[in-house]
Specification:
mainly alpha; about 0% strand; 6 helices
Length: about 130
Amino acid sequence: MIKKISESELTKMCVELLSKTYLDLGQHNIDAKTKVLMAQSLASDLKKSFPTLLWHDVKQAFWNGVRNTEDFSINAKTYYKWLKLWRSIIWNNEGVADHQKDKRLDYRKEIHTGIAGVDNAIKNLITNK
């Protein structure tokens, strides 16, 4: 979860994510200082507004955002829109039968997140006592 990642580590991860995002959007002339400042802003915003998202969720939000956007610049308004959309996809699929879940969230099964993963972890703890 984002809240468990240190600020400095999260900032490094954000620099990498933003670098890829700039390339995906066709923006090849962004200087390093701008990337670092944007990464610091993104890291801070993630800690404040999206602390329970997984890092993989953040990467998926950006991947989906880049491919389904009319905004070809990256700024706080753009990434907030992408992150909020992705968070709503996650929330709307909690408690939904597996065959009805959004297939874009299949990666979450692999890392045992969500209600089912927590329920199974609790059952395993109880039965292993």
